Amino acid sequence: MKRMIATGFLVVFLAGCGESDKSVTSVASPPTQNSPSASQGSGITVSLIMKTLTNPFFIEMEKGARKAQKESGIELQVMTASQETSIEQQIQLVESQIEAKVDAIVIAPGDSHRLVPVLKKAQDAGIRIVNIDNRLHPAAVAESGLKPLPFISVDNEKAAYLSAKHLADTAKGPTEAAIIEGIRTADNANQRSRGAEKAFRENSRIRVVAVETANWKIDEAYTVAKTIFAAHPKIKLVFCANDMMAIGVIRYLQEAGRHDVQVAGFDALEEAKTAIHHGQMLVTIDQQAAQQGYQGVMTAIKLLRGETVPAQVEIEAKAITAKDLK
Question: Among candidates 190, 191, 171, which has minimal Cα distance to 238?
Answer without folding.
Answer: 171
